[in-house]
Amino acid sequence: MSDALINGLAGAGGGIIAQLITYPLQTVNTRQQTERDLKKEKRKLGTIEQMCQVVKQEGWERLYGGLTPSLKKGIGDGSVGMLSSLIVAALSGCVNVLLTNPIWVVVTRMQTHTNILRKDHSNRLATPALEETVLSAIEPFSYSTGHAIQEVYDEAGFWGFWKGVFPTLIMVSNPAMQFMLYETMLKKLKKQRSLSKPDNNGVTALEIFLLGALAKLGATVVTYPLNVVKARLQAKQVATGDRRHQYKGTMDAILKMIRYEGFYGFYKGMSTKIVQSVLAAAVLFMIKEELVKGARLLLVKDGIHTVKSKLP
């Protein structure tokens, strides 16, 4: 088995595990990003409070809304070197965005469905009692992948599945930046380790975890505003007459957010995103490295066993 295949399989395994662990945070973060309440006096719920609210009002399964199409997208290895590798990664990332944007539109709809639905009805219902009565009848409705696809198509047709593609294309720089930082820090750490301990330049799982977290933190802080714009465009438009809540495109969304929400609007839910993405990246790198070590060890043992079996 080649090194590339081992790294690819390990990266995919680590990515899936990281996705399963951190997906509830991603769901809450998407809801925070698409929050369009302009009332300053309303107290914002913290991440844990919002997760508890989702569980209480909608059930545990809503924290994993859209997980199936998200996992079907697949996760690769993503290791990059320097300039030439970054260019290749950026180009392949652009192709990946164009092909998978429909999946993320559906995922965003599924993550924000009940949130937007509640807001839409609360804007139109006369009394809290009537609102709760209607919502209690709506909640059991199963909003599946098929419903999300149909909703997007009915709303904007075929091209609706490519909403938010422009900020997403720019965000291709996020993983490239992340892996560049990770590889740079990893090489420096190994170099320092080899100078101090010539017989051992390896790194521990904890060190890999921390390096992955730092790399993702840097990339997330830089590209987060684009993530918010993308989520706003991909989420269902609130059915009210307020044009401040309706976006025609990327520039329209950016200008309206600046005008009505200020620059703070571009960083809504950032603390949740940092925890989710940093934790996911750290877990991915740590599990990947451990799986690669384990696979190589098994191959070496298998090779030794094969050689011994052939000896007279």
UniProtKB/TrEMBL annotation:
<keyword id="KW-1133">Transmembrane helix</keyword>
<dbReference type="GO" id="GO:0006862">
    <property type="term" value="P:nucleotide transport"/>
</dbReference>
<keyword id="KW-0812">Transmembrane</keyword>
<keyword id="KW-0472">Membrane</keyword>
<feature type="transmembrane region" description="Helical">
    <location>
        <begin position="161"/>
        <end position="182"/>
    </location>
</feature>
<dbReference type="InterPro" id="IPR018108">
    <property type="entry name" value="MCP_transmembrane"/>
</dbReference>
<keyword id="KW-0677">Repeat</keyword>
<dbReference type="GO" id="GO:0055085">
    <property type="term" value="P:transmembrane transport"/>
</dbReference>
<feature type="transmembrane region" description="Helical">
    <location>
        <begin position="203"/>
        <end position="226"/>
    </location>
</feature>
<dbReference type="InterPro" id="IPR044712">
    <property type="entry name" value="SLC25A32-like"/>
</dbReference>
<comment type="similarity">
    <text>Belongs to the mitochondrial carrier (TC 2.A.29) family.</text>
</comment>
<feature type="repeat" description="Solcar">
    <location>
        <begin position="114"/>
        <end position="188"/>
    </location>
</feature>
<feature type="repeat" description="Solcar">
    <location>
        <begin position="2"/>
        <end position="91"/>
    </location>
</feature>
<dbReference type="GO" id="GO:0016020">
    <property type="term" value="C:membrane"/>
</dbReference>
<feature type="transmembrane region" description="Helical">
    <location>
        <begin position="80"/>
        <end position="99"/>
    </location>
</feature>
<feature type="repeat" description="Solcar">
    <location>
        <begin position="203"/>
        <end position="294"/>
    </location>
</feature>
<dbReference type="InterPro" id="IPR023395">
    <property type="entry name" value="MCP_dom_sf"/>
</dbReference>
<keyword id="KW-0813">Transport</keyword>
<protein>
    <recommendedName>
        <fullName>Peroxisomal nicotinamide adenine dinucleotide carrier</fullName>
    </recommendedName>
</protein>
<dbReference type="Pfam" id="PF00153">
    <property type="entry name" value="Mito_carr"/>
</dbReference>
